[in-house]
Amino acid sequence: MKEVIESTNLEKQLTRHHEGDSDYTHQGTGSSKKVLIASVCLTLGYAVIEVIGGFLSNSLALLSDAGHMVTDSASLFFALLANVLAGRPASGKYSFGFAKLEVLAALLNALAMFAVVLWIVVEAVERFSSPEPVNGSSVFLVATLGLLINIAVAWTLSRDQKSINTRAALLHVMGDLLGSVAAITAGIVIYFGGPVIVDPILSIFVSALILHSSWGVVKTSVHLLLDGVPDNIPYQEVGSTLEAIPGVYAVHDLHIWDMTANEAALSSHIVLERMDEWPQVLEKAREVLEKKYGISHITLQPEPVEEMKKRFMCIGE
């Protein structure tokens, strides 16, 4: 089949289009990077303090919350990594760039957190049968510090609402507040003579938070690594929309996937009734795909209807 090459003017339009995408993607990158660096330092620094405090006070609630903080530190770091890698151009060896590194790192982090949760739950179950003394005042002080740091991180992230990575990280950090509140509750109950069993109970509660966030990361990461169709794009409807364009006879080999967490791509074969209508069909297809579905990275290959009919005739024989 003869391949139809797009006109020079259209190539120039596509070049300008991609340059515009690049400008938009990196808008506010500097401020986002500073905000994320500050948030990573605060969250990870407190996680270290909480681990030390958890061992010294013998509190599982603090240790489980520390695990949650490490999860959030990692998510903030991945957002920072994506921010940095977004500025690196694609190369001859990596034509799609390096955005998938963020996805791979997120998946590995989530899987590692499953091991942390398993350890916490095993320790908690043992403490149900053999309770151990816990220093309630230490738990209260360290967890209160954590609450203040979480508030500071949330405030820092809220200052940058241009980056979708930052907004996603902000939602993740808000969950930390629950972990800190749980640890503070355990410290208060134990300090005032309450049962020490409240510590492993609340540690399991925080572990459930870790599992919830980690499982969400695993599902999203696997979906992206398998080049799944973005959740907000109706696959069948996109195909029908392309077929409804005047001059289009049929659509096949339609693929839609996420190039990054926020940028979808599409490729497809477009069967035309008349090949000389391809420039108009291409322009209309690009317009409807971008305006209706937000798909800006588009690769379409035209085919004459006679070619498809010949193919089906061969199959029939």
TrEMBL record:
Residues 230-304 form the Cation efflux protein cytoplasmic domain. GO terms for molecular function: zinc ion transmembrane transporter activity. It comes from the Bacteria. GO terms for cellular component: plasma membrane. Keywords: Ion transport, Membrane, Transmembrane, Transmembrane helix, Transport, Zinc, Zinc transport. It is found in: Membrane. Residues 36-226 form the Cation efflux protein transmembrane domain. The keyword Chaperone does not apply. InterPro entries: Cation_efflux, Cation_efflux_CTD, Cation_efflux_CTD_sf, Cation_efflux_TM, Cation_efflux_TMD_sf, CDF/SLC30A. Pfam families: Cation_efflux, ZT_dimer. It is a multi-pass membrane protein. The chain crosses the membrane at residues 35-56, 68-86, 98-122, 134-157, 169-194, 200-218. Gene3D superfamilies: Cation efflux protein transmembrane domain. PANTHER family: CATION EFFLUX PROTEIN/ ZINC TRANSPORTER (PTHR11562), RE54080P-RELATED (PTHR11562:SF17). Belongs to the cation diffusion facilitator (CDF) transporter (TC 2.A.4) family. SLC30A subfamily. This is Cadmium, cobalt and zinc/H(+)-K(+) antiporter.
